Amino acid sequence: MTSWTAADIPDLTGKSAIVTGANSGIGLPTALELARHGAGVIVASRNPDKGRAAVEEIRREVPGAQVEFGQLDLADLASVRRFAASVDRLDLLVNNAGVGLISRQETKDGFEMQFGTNHLGHFALTGLLLPLLLKSPGARVVTVSSDAHKAGRIDFDNLGLTHGYGRMSAYARSKLANLLFTLELRRRAEKAGADLISVATNPGTTATNFVNVGPLKPLLSLFMRSPEAGALSSLYAATSPAIHGGEWVGPKLQLMAPSKTARSDALAERLWEVSAELTGVRFEAIAEAN
Ligand SMILES: NC(=O)c1ccc[n+]([C@@H]2O[C@H](COP(=O)([O-])OP(=O)(O)OC[C@H]3O[C@@H](n4cnc5c(N)ncnc54)[C@H](OP(=O)(O)O)[C@@H]3O)[C@@H](O)[C@H]2O)c1
Predict the structure, then answer these.
(1) Key word Chaperone present in the record (predicted)?
(2) In DSSP terms, which residues pair with 140 in a beta bridge?
(3) N or C, fewer C-beta in 10 Å, the chain?
(4) pLDDT by residue (tens digit) across 166-189?
(5) Where residue 57 sits, what CATH number does that domain have?
């Protein structure tokens, strides 16, 4: 537990950051605070209107902010590749975007939507941006997970969830994958001697579009964290010198223990190999040592 606030973010002048899903919810204040502290920020959003509106909002709040829009649809690997190819430098990647609790749908590439967007899209994005991250000493990858991961199970024979689909269980699986990815990236980077910090967060229950509870939303929002409070775990993970990699940062910025399943090296390794196969992204820069 710490009294750390966004005011404690160090000067980020000269740093380049990407925040996925930065047009709303937790992602918007994450991008805004990074920009307020001097970082150049790409608001990576699938919807150009929403993405540009977020850029304008940040510029209004932080005159002179170095912020721009980048179009990224994590549910489309061609879009992920186009976006990654448009970036020329990077110190910080915040894998924040997410879908949850939806009826069964598929990404452009035919993956179950929650796994495909929350995990495979971010897996591919991180791998494609890895060469840029490795040029930046102390680069960080922050991946937003959730307490929901504790209920997550991965059946490699039913990755498409073509049978037994549940909105919650599919979400839990995708958030488990986020944690397994974070920890495996850290292990692989370390083994390769790469100067890269990989850290996961849990923002806590936050009043965003994600928590879609219809007419009850204004009432329930009173009991939830604000998006600004929800963003603190990402901002802390992204900028605090106390973070060295492999942590799971909770809503009160406490270091939490992921579930036993999330800490399984064997499961993480298998998920990595399967994700590389499905996306065609192989993290070549650190692959040789692994
Ligand atoms: N809110 C909570 O209580 C809570 C708790 C634990 C963890 N989380 C995690 O926090 C993260 C942020 O969620 P949030 O609560 O801020 O929800 P949100 O307001 O719904 O924001 C989610 C963001 O992800 C974007 N997104 C969805 N699918 C995308 C795709 N295919 N490509 C690119 N962007 C996409 C959304 O874009 P659109 O605006 O176009 O839909 C939106 O910008 C998620 O990873 C979520 O799992 C949230």
Answers:
(1) no
(2) 92, 197
(3) N
(4) 999 999 999 999 999 999 999 999
(5) 3.40.50.720
Question: Residue 210's domain spans which residues?
Answer: 6-287
- Is 1 among the domain residues? no
Question: Nearest C-alpha to atom 19 of ligand 1 is from which residue?
Answer: 25
Q: Could you count the other beta carbons within 10 Å of the beta carbon of residue 7?
A: 8
Catalytic option among 171, 181, 210, 283: 171
Convert the pLDDT of each residue in 91-145 to its tens digit. 999 999 999 989 999 999 999 999 999 999 999 999 999 999 999 999 999 999 9
User: Residues near ligand 1 with C-beta < 6 Å?
Assistant: 20-21, 23-27, 45-47, 50, 72-75, 96-100, 117, 144, 146, 203, 205-206, 208-211
When divided into structural domains, the chain yields a total of 1
Nearest CA to ligand 1 atom 14: 25
Q: Is residue 84 part of a domain?
A: yes
